[in-house]
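Hi R.,

Quick one: here's the CRAL-TRIO domain-containing protein sequence you asked about.
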Amino acid sequence: MEISSEHLINEFQKMIDDSQFDGPLKITFEAMHQGYPRENLCRFLKARDDNIAKAHTMLLDCLNWRIQNEIDDIMAKPIVPEHVYRAVRDSQLVGMSGYSKEGLPVLAVGVGLSTYDKASIHYYVQSHIQMNEYRDRVILPAATKKYNRHINTCVKILDMTGLKLSALNQIKILTVISTIDDLNYPEKTDTYYVVNAPYIFSACWKVVRPLLQERTRKRIQVLQGCGRDELLKIMDYASLPHFCRREGSGSSRHLWTEKDDNCFSLDNSFHQQLYNFVKKQGEPKERVAPVKQGSFHVDFPEPVLGDAKIAETIKSEFQKLGDQNGLLNGLGNLEINGH
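And here's the predicted structure, written out as tokens:
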């Protein structure tokens, strides 16, 4: 991440000091920056194109959101009962496969095969925020220690395997998650790599693209096939997600097999460690009172485009492709919802 000038950071810090940045705001800011306050000020400056006033407003909005929704305590609020947690994990495919050569954690997202249909939207939002917080509180500090330099961003690989027209039913929840990240976890992802994109991806992208912030769109790179050859330029083979090991024009000595680690699996070390971390964080409160059943509700913004506009855009894009490919069969049954 490019570092904003010292002058801008100093001015930003002065604005915070002048606004009596104390009490709950100070506490939650300390929880968020994890010992690197200036680097976090830099993130918000960059997210607002070095406009100090806008960065200050964005930071205050973020901190108030964290206070109002008790984000500092969300790691002590496990998704229970366990079968609901398993259902969320099986339908919201996320994992960690390793580190880039620069030490950035490599996070994988199974966009095409995630269904988001096993629980309410609140469970998926809770799950996503918990993974964000685990990344910021555990994964990134561990990477900083391992590579002996401050690491505050990650790389995300978006797997489009299995992407179908019906995936657009999840457009609302995907937009909510993206917006939460844009507003409250800015500048946390260095690059998004799209791999295994089927032919319908271009139409889906035209629907999703207007819902993303411009700075997010600029970081998205669509790679050919599983992207193995391109990704091996920035990471070792061992850090490739399992879905990036299947093909490529390079050496064939590494063949993908079913025995390779599936980073989406609950048996993967990332998910085991995350689950145990949340469980341990919740133990003190469990001794005082039982964990409340049900999802942990977090305020989230409505999508920029309304459901009707999204549906109209989807239909328009697929009309351009659908006649010759048979994609319009069943289009009339497509529903836009947030589950």
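Confidence is low (pLDDT under 50) at residues 248-260, 326-339.

Cheers,
M.
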